[in-house]
């Protein structure tokens, strides 16, 4: 967090090396294991599936090039989603990433099981009476357990071994392509195998795209290695582009040779034959046209699946470990073993997930689940790039900027969503697991992680003193931010009155604000001064009014941030703020901090413009919206009870309304206020009536009337986002027009309203305050 | 999830440079659009060729378009660095190219 030193990695990867890292990550187990399955789905159209995937991948690669160069951090996609998207998205990005890498591990374990099973079959060996084919799952379990043990020991893939494996598998694939093309050019009939090109229609091609998407996602590792790349602004985007330019043609050629050079020895088409052999399709095909074909492909497949399983075990463990460390998952996920210095409990959980998926469902469904999860993850990155550019656009140093922004990320989002949805046709089981996993994730977020996330907020509480009588009690809590108690006398008066009426307490909040460029820890030196000079005096003032109080000090870069966090953390019911009546920034409605609290605080909020609240003989309450009016009237009644003030209600109708429209409007208002005994005169039941005036100038009429009153209580506009954007709001215009005492009130929003508006605000916010 | 997080990560520009750098891409957009259009059109040709000669022509054109797009993006990265240095000089910042921005 903000006050902790950062550990930095040394930058020693050049353009060539980091491009090879990306190529090595892509040309791997995915192409060995998935080519056969995808050929069975798309037919010769597998080539089209690879090419189309190249285009879809290129669109997301543009996002990785931009963000990888601007924010070259080890977290990669997970980190950008965390920066760029609101609410549970950051948690879900980590949660989905954990699942995606773990299930990819299951896929590679099953792929290994199949390849080793084929070795047993080649030599006619059985084990406990089981043949090679039957041994796929047992082998998968054994190899997964082996890599869990290896990762527990802390032995990850070393640089040299990793490079040898990469070179070996690329050479084997090159030999496969070369031999296949040689065979095809010596047998012209080979080219007839590509007709019909899409025997299962375009649907089969889209399914194959979804199935093989995981084989294209390796460039993610380039961004993840960002902290170790020399000149990352230049080399990361270039490496992303060039690694794809190397890999896509290789995949196309593997597809061409697998379909074109394979003989089935029967009427069966070569693509069907490959599909029947599933994950072993490539190895079986190599037997026909490549010297030592099966042996080499088996070696390549076994090496690839083993290194990929090791990498995915490692990465899924690290993701869950990081989530535990970030307090998104229970602390035990971040526990490190004393002896091996490895996160053994995160490893155990990840290993369990890998084993469960490998054992529970067939390899096609495991592959589909992996692909759907990666598609959804990359989709989030494409949304995040739009918000990051909007929020931090001019504050970052980009190595590459996406052209046609934001059209290309939007196209990528639509395409990936389409492919992921289409995968339901191929594997409903995969979607069942994906949706189930996301649903469990949301449950964990709302039931557990969100609360813990709040605890590590960037506005730390440095002092909390609660009155002994109220510790642990659930009481109505009225928050008053206090900078100078002598200027806050009227605020404390109002807050105490509200708290007393609800048998609640006043919460006094003092915010130590430090400039943006200064670390928050600097504010700690002012805590005792804040307590002595501000809170002790303010607490005395509340005590004089015979109301219990608590005192809190938070450090923040913005007072609004601290108030909003205290509202969330302290279960605040009502915020009472002060306003001097000036607006420094013309872009704000009332003032920067008040606007933010109005928008983000999930409680009743009132803003008082007055130096004192005595005497209040007459209160004017102009009403429009029934919900706001209800709260306004409750507050007016408090003055009536405490000071015997008279309360006049006013409603202004547009001129020219028909009788029907007029009575419908009034009925709505009376209905909303019935429990406060407001009603029409003719009913005979109402204690209070609303004075109805007709005027085309609402602002002028209310301002004129307010001149005769000691206090005017106004409701803030309903959350009219689009209206505010265009013209500002009537209540705020009235507030500026009234010279006397004024109380502006906003009713608590409903939970759904809150979510929708917070999301809209998140995408609108360009200030980077990150309050949501 | 805020500007503080980015500051802590050391990826923010110095404040005096905020708003000083343009956000327009340095990719030549018309040729790039043409490259993408050719790539997408070649996918259609691969499909319509139904495994015949057009499929192979389409595949070849697709690879050429892919390399053209890659080349254009690669050049844009180099231009972007050049432009950034120019804008930094114009802004009068003391930050050196290649160094991490001040935290």
Overview of the structural elements:
Chain A is built from 27 helices and 11 strands. With 772 residues, chain A is of the alpha/beta class. An 11-stranded mixed beta sheet of chain A has the order 1-4-3-2-5-6-11-10-7-8-9, with helices on both faces. Chain A is elongated. Chain A starts with 14 loop residues before the first helix and ends in an 8-residue tail after the last helix. With 103 residues, chain B is mainly alpha-helical. Helix content of chain B is 63%, strand content 0%. The two termini of chain B are 17 Å apart. Chains A and B meet through helix 3 and helix 10 of A and helix 1, helix 2 and helix 3 of B.
Give the tags.
heterodimer, A: 772 residues, alpha/beta, eleven-stranded mixed β-sheet, 27 helices, 11 strands, 9% strand, disordered N terminus, disordered C terminus, B: 103 residues, mainly alpha, 3 helices
Short description:
Chain A has 27 helices and eleven strands. Chain A has 772 residues and is of the alpha/beta class. In chain A, helix 2 (29-42) crosses helix 10, helix 5 (89-122) runs antiparallel to helix 13 (293-325) and helix 15 packs across helix 17 (428-455).
Topology readout:
The complex is a heterodimer of chains A (772) and B (103).
Chain A: H1 15-26, H2 29-42, H3 46-70, H4 77-84, H5 89-122, H6 136-153, H7 159-185, H8 201-212, H9 220-224, H10 232-260, H11 270-276, H12 281-289, H13 293-325, H14 344-360, H15 363-392, H16 407-426, H17 428-455, E1 461-465, E2 477-481, H18 489-501, E3 505-513, H19 527-544, E4 549-556, H20 559-569, E5 574-578, H21 592-600, E6 604-609, E7 618-622, H22 626-643, E8 646-653, H23 659-672, E9 690-694, H24 698-706, E10 711-715, H25 721-727, H26 730-737, E11 741-746, H27 751-764
Parallel strand pairs in A: 2-3, 2-5, 3-4, 5-6, 7-8, 7-10, 8-9, 10-11
Antiparallel strand pairs in A: 1-4, 6-11
Helix pairs in contact in A: 1-10, 2-8, 2-10, 2-11, 2-13, 3-8, 3-10, 3-15, 3-16, 4-5, 4-15, 5-6, 5-13, 5-14, 5-15, 5-17, 6-13, 6-14, 7-10, 7-13, 8-16, 11-12, 12-13, 13-14, 15-16, 15-17, 16-17, 20-21, 22-23, 24-26
Chain B: H1 3-8, H2 29-48, H3 53-91
Helix pairs in contact in B: 2-3
């Amino acid at each position: 967090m903000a006050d902790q030193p950062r550990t930095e990695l040394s930058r020693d990867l050049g353009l060539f090396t980091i491009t090879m890292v990306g190529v090595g990550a892509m040309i791997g187990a995915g192409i060995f294991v998935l080519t056969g399955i995808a050929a069975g789905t798309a037919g010769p159209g597998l080539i089209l599936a690879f090419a189309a995937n190249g285009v879809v991948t290129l669109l997301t690669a543009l996002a990785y090039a931009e963000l990888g160069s601007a924010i070259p951090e080890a977290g990669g996609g997970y980190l950008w989603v965390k920066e760029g998207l609101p609410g549970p998205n950051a948690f879900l990005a980590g949660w989905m990433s954990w699942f995606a890498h773990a299930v990819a591990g299951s896929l590679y374990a099953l792929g290994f099981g199949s390849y080793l099973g084929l070795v047993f079959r080649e030599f006619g060996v059985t084990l406990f009476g089981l043949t090679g084919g039957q041994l796929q799952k047992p082998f998968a379990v054994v190899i997964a357990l082996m890599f869990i043990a290896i990762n527990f020991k802390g032995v990850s893939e070393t640089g040299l071994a990793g490079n040898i494996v990469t070179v070996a598998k690329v050479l084997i694939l090159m030999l496969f392509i070369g031999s296949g093309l040689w065979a095809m050019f010596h047998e012209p009939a080979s080219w007839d195998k590509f007709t019909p090109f899409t025997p299962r229609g375009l649907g089969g091609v889209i399914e194959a795209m979804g199935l093989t998407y995981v084989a294209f996602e390796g460039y993610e590792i380039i961004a993840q290695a960002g902290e170790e790349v020399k000149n990352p602004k230049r080399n990361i985007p270039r490496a992303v582009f060039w690694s794809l330019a190397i890999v896509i043609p290789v995949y196309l050629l593997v597809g061409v040779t697998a379909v074109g050079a394979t003989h089935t020895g029967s009427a069966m088409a070569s693509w069907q034959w490959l599909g029947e052999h599933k994950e072993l399709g490539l190895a079986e095909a190599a037997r026909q046209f490549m010297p030592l074909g099966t042996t080499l492909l088996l070696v390549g497949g076994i090496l690839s699946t083993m290194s990929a399983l090791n990498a995915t075990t490692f990465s899924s463990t690290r993701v869950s470990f990081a989530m535990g460390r970030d307090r998104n998952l229970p602390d035990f996920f971040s526990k490190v073993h004393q002896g091996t210095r490895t996160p053994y409990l995160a490893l155990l959980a990840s290993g369990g997930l890998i084993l469960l998926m490998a054992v529970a469902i067939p390899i096609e469904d495991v592959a589909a689940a992996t692909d759907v999860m990666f598609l959804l993850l990359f989709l989030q990155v494409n949304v995040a790039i739009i918000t990051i550019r909007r929020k931090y656009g001019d504050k970052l140093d980009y190595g590459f900027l996406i052209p046609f922004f934001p059209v290309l990320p939007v196209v990528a989002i639509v395409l990936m969503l389409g492919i992921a949805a289409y995968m339901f046709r191929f594997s409903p089981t995969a979607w069942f697991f994906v949706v189930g996993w996301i649903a469990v994730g949301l449950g964990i977020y709302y039931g557990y992680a969100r609360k813990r996330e709040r605890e590590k907020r960037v506005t730390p509480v440095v002092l909390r003193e609660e009155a002994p009588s109220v510790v642990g009690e659930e009481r109505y809590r009225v928050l008053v931010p206090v900078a100078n108690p002598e200027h806050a006398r009227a605020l404390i008066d109002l807050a105490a009155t509200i708290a007393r009426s609800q048998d609640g307490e006043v919460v006094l909040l003092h915010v130590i604000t430090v400039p943006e460029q200064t670390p928050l820890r600097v504010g700690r030196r002012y805590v005792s001064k804040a307590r002595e000079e501000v809170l002790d005096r303010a607490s005395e003032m509340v005590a004089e009014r015979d109301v219990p109080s608590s005192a809190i000090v938070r450090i923040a870069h913005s007072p609004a941030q601290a108030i909003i966090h205290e509202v969330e953390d302290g279960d605040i019911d009502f915020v009472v703020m002060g306003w001097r009546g000036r607006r420094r920034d013309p872009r704000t409605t009332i003032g920067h901090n008040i606007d933010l609290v109005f928008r983000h605080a999930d409680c009743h909020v009132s803003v008082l413009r007055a130096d004192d609240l005595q005497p209040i003989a007459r209160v004017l309450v102009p009403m429009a919206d029934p919900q706001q009016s209800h709260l306004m009237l409750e507050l007016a009644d408090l003055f009536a009870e405490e000071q015997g003030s008279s309360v006049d209600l006013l409603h202004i109708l547009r001129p020219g309304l028909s009788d029907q429209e007029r009575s419908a409007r009034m009925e709505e208002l009376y209905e909303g206020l019935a429990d406060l005994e407001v009603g029409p005169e003719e009913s005979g039941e109402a204690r209070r009536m609303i004075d109805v005036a007709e005027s085309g100038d609402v602002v002028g009429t209310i301002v004129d009337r307010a001149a005769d009153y000691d206090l005017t209580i106004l409701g803030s506009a309903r959350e009219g986002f689009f209206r505010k954007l265009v013209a500002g709001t009537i209540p705020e215009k009235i507030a500026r027009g009234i010279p006397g005492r004024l109380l502006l009130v906003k009713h608590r929003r409903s939970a759904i309203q809150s979510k929708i508006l917070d999301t809209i605000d998140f995408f609108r916010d360009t200030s980077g305050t990150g309050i949501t | 999830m805020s500007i503080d997080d980015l500051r802590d990560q050391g990826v923010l520009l110095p404040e005096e440079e905020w708003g000083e750098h343009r956000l327009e891409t340095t990719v030549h957009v018309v040729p790039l659009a043409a490259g993408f259009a050719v790539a997408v059109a070649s996918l259609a040709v691969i499909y319509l060729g139904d495994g015949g000669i057009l499929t192979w022509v389409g595949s070849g054109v697709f690879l050429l378009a892919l390399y053209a797009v890659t080349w254009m993006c690669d050049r844009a990265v180099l231009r972007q660095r050049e432009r950034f240095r120019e804008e930094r000089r114009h802004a009068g910042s003391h930050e050196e190219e290649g160094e991490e921005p001040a935290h």
